[in-house]
Amino acid sequence: DTNPAANCYQCGLSARRNKVVYGDGPNPALGAIVGEAPGQSENLYGRPFVGASGKLLREGLSSIGLDIPTEVYITNLVKCWPGHDAKGKQLAPNAEEIRTCTSLYLKGQLNAATPTLILAIGALAAKWLCGKALASSANQPWPGIGPAEGYAVIPLYHPAAVLRNRKKWGLTWEKGLKAVGRYLFPPPPSE
Q1: Which residues contact 13 (CB under 8 A, 6 or more apart)?
Q2: Nearest 5°: CA angle at 180, between 179 and 185?
Q3: For the residues 82-98, what does the mean pLDDT come to?
Q4: How far is 34 from 73, CA to CA, in rounded Å?
Q5: Closest by alpha carbon to 48, among 27, 75, 30, 82?
Q6: Which residues does residue 30 pair with via DSSP β-bridges, in sequence order?
Q7: How far apart, in whole angstroms, are the C-alpha atoms of residue 28 and residue 171?
Q8: Which helix (DSSP H) or strand (DSSP E) does residue 152 occupy?
Q9: Do 81 and 39 contact (CB within 8 A), yes or no?
Q10: What pLDDT, in 10s, does the model give residues 12-56?
């Protein structure tokens, strides 16, 4: 995947990045994953979802029959790491940073991937891609908005939230994976 954002300085996020984390995966793709922003590991390696969250996400999607390298395109709303606050917690990109990056890059990425389904990973991705709060929209398909207009979107809790709170494992994570599996691989109609 070529990286048209490699030399982007359109917002303040460019000041903190080590590498632009554009996207990874096939075009076209059966599914697309859109997270919030690259984390520290992604900033180091230049690929989306390569840390512990990415491992959980890839394992979960593989468990429902998705072949990540050949069927899933992975990216984020913004392409640059937003940094950490004084307590070491990753900062969230602000609305202007998201608006700039999604208009410059995400719409084109999704149009190139032409996914059957977009997985909006986390609260910000749910808000920007289907206009819904994660708590009320998780694990069910919605029509996409903004850069996801014309696509179906299923919001999922971020794997980092699941790793921090194991109560979310069965209630949200496994339920979300099953919803994705039913959408992409529906059972044949009964006779």
Answers
A1: 37, 78, 79, 80, 81, 82, 93, 97, 101
A2: 105
A3: 93
A4: 9
A5: 75
A6: none
A7: 32
A8: strand 152-156
A9: yes
A10: 999 889 999 999 999 999 999 999 999 999 999 999 999 899 999
Q: How far apart are CA 3 and CA 144, in angstroms?
A: 24
- pLDDT digits 0-9 by tens, 155-171: 999 998 888 887 777 77
**Amino acid identity, residue 47?**
R
Residue 48: both structure tokens together: 């989306």
Provide the token pair at 60: 């979960």
Task: Tell how many helices (H) and how many strands (E) occur in the chain.
Answer: 10, 6
d(CA 130, CA 132): 6
pTM of the model: 0.93
Beta strands in 1-151 (DSSP E): 23-24, 31-35, 72-76, 117-121, 142-143
Distance from C-alpha of 118 to C-alpha of 151, rounded to nearest angstrom:
7
The one-letter amino acid at 178: K
